[in-house]
Amino acid sequence: MILDCDPGHDDALAIMLAAADARLDLLAITTVAGNTTLDKATLNARRVCTIAGISRVPVAAGCDRPLVAELRVADDIHGESGLDGPAFGEPTVPLAGEHAVALMRRLLLDHPEPVTLVPTGPLTNVATLLRDHPEVAPKIREIVLMGGSTERGNISPYGEFNIFVDPEAADLVFRAGLPVTMIGLNVTHQALVTPDVVARFRALGTPLAEACVELMTFFGSAYERVFGLADPPLHDPIAVARVIDPSLVACVPAPVAVELTGAHTRGATVVDLHRRTGALPNAQVALDLDVPRFWDLLVDALTRLSGSP
Ligand code: BDR
Ligand code: CA
Predict the structure, then answer these.
(1) Where would I find the Inosine/uridine-preferring nucleoside hydrolase domain in this sequence (predicted)?
(2) 189 is catalytic
(3) Complex-level ipTM
(4) Cβ-contact 5, 40 below 8 angstroms
């Protein structure tokens, strides 16, 4: 799989899970502007790889702004750096020379088997890939994205951040005719980082686990301040978990449209769960997470990553 992300606290744990689980072959980590600017998201991806000891996966920077909209970052949630909390040293993991979209294209065309794309930020890179290089389509096994919601949003009443930041890109991806799985807020809000979860991280006793505790502490205080939620939802790793073990996330097929013009609802995912529109399903929409097994999977991943001091 290729992880396309905008780290981001929950993206950071998605990187760790994707790199650690033996059932996945993580071919690349690509970055996109979203939670923070592209430069900061890319630096953060390299920081995460450095502290987690992930040294053999290329990290490439992609698009620095949405297809049409102005970039809106989430510094209220992720802080000024995009990954506030721990003190990071200078990353030792290098930046690949290739643009993320070129790297994705090359990896897809070169790989003997179809590859799963896991976008956990705005869909700008993936949409650009599909728009400019349609020849890759048969090499994409599936797109398992964190974004959207069957219910309310988090950046606007009905807009989820990743879709809201680049709705035109999301529209292109949902209408591409490829297998898409949507891991939306309705399911990610089942994975709440409770004090018990933080205690499990802390009990691992490694510098990496301690950094995760610090990340979750910052993330939790931001969620409390902005949303009044005591325990923050860990969105992005759920998309990775779905690829590792599909039985962790129950999905239903449904038509999904991205609202591009609504006066109050631009960036909303309109999910026709009751199939009232007559449209054909274009996505598997996640509804339920096996919460205990998800946390076991993540803690196990953190146990297996050696990290670096
Ligand atoms: C999504 O938005 C970002 O802030 C998170 O990293 C996640 O990908 C949740 O709406
Ligand atoms: Ca993200």
Answers:
(1) 1-296
(2) no
(3) 0.99
(4) no
